[in-house]
Amino acid sequence: MRITAQEEYGLRCLIQLARQTDGQGLTLKQIGEREGISTANAGKILWLLSNAGIVKSARGIKGGYMLARPSDQITVSDIISVFENADLEEHCKSFSGIQEVCVHNADCGIRPVLQILNETVKQVLSQITLAQLVHHECEVSQRLFQLQRAAPTTAAMSA
Amino acid sequence: MRITAQEEYGLRCLIQLARQTDGQGLTLKQIGEREGISTANAGKILWLLSNAGIVKSARGIKGGYMLARPSDQITVSDIISVFENADLEEHCKSFSGIQEVCVHNADCGIRPVLQILNETVKQVLSQITLAQLVHHECEVSQRLFQLQRAAPTTAAMSA
DNA sequence: GACATTGTTGACGAAAAAGTAAAGTATTCA
DNA sequence: TGAATACTTTACTTTTTCGTCAACAATGTC
Hey, what domains does chain A have and what are their CATH numbers? Predict the structure, then answer.
């Protein structure tokens, strides 16, 4: 259970773009230098993000990348999903909502635990926006810790 | 951001052991057959879990594996940690508690987002025990969904 | 319209993870 | 004691992922 290299760089590249408040955008070369990765690698990552509609690109001498929508409308879950293997998506596509969780799963005991945990994690990450990561990472961290402690999770689980 | 193959199989092997209510334990051959993996692979996974003190083993003709402690005292976070690369642990060892989150991080802006998210996820997973996964996976899933919806996360984050 | 700059795309090699194999060690029972 | 069973440990092979390279396409400037 870890963030892959691509996912981490994707997140960090987006944070760089989100910090551009002047609406200027950044070139692949600039992004690569700021995050310590090659221009080629930055190109690959940004291309995936572009396909997913998270960033928009412009070619030519005035080109570069910028966010496709405000950073408070981009969740970490959105970003992570871009780099997931498409094959895994089909593993259990029926898992789409709380109402349908058990409808398609008579064989609940065989159901991979994998899927349950993945959905749990994604649910948590969908509540963290890029805007929250941009300003002060530590504040976000503290808030999340408090969040988890405040939630009556243990009681709810054992009920 | 996904569970690795080893982590998934580790979880599932432990669920098999947790289902053994007669205190008998299971051999590597039995575990492998039940989870569709080779005996050799099961051996590798259970060896790691044994080193971590999550399971205990017995050699000889009456040998096998069993949980080292009750399943409600084993969290998913415990299990996942077993299969993490030890090198990553040193990446930011100062991240040990909520009080010390920002103490060691004057360079907060440079701090990898990776670490923050990993801690967040681990915090969530530390609240799920093996016992909860054993009985009915779907019930656990529903509870977690309700949990996440009930928690006033968005309000807390934007405060 | 020529040129420099920048993003786009596919192919290739390197690195890491996963799984397999085999030899070794300990325990039990006849 | 000896043989069968089962865990232990290391090394190897396969598979997957990661990163780089090179050629291509599009845009803006002079």
Answer: 5-152 (1.10.10.10)
User: Is residue A34's beta carbon less than 7 angstroms from any atom in nucleic acid strand C?
Assistant: no
pTM of the model: 0.79
Tokens 């899927």, residue located: A115
Nearest C-alpha in B relative to A133? B113
Residue A37 — φ and ψ, nearest 5°? Answer: -125, 165
Nearest-neighbour CA in chain B from A118: distance (Å): 7
Q: Taking the CA of residue A32 as centre, how many other CA atoms within 13 Å lie in the half-sphere pointing to its CB?
A: 14
Cα–Cα dist A84/A121, whole Å:
14
**pLDDT tens for each residue of B95-148:** 333 334 444 444 445 556 677 777 778 888 898 899 888 865 556 555 555 544
Among residues A105, A148, A104, A108, the alpha carbon closest in space to that of A124 is found at A148
D chain positions with any atom within 7 Å of a protein CB: 4-11, 17-22, 25-29
- B75 forms beta bridges with B129
Residues of chain B found within 8 Å of residue A136, distances taken between Cβ atoms: 108-109
Tell if A93 CB is < 7 Å from nucleic strand C.
no
Q: How far is the CA of B22 from the C1' of D3 (A)?
A: 29
Give the containing element (helix H, strand E) for B57. strand B55-58
List B67's β-bridge partners, or say none.
B55
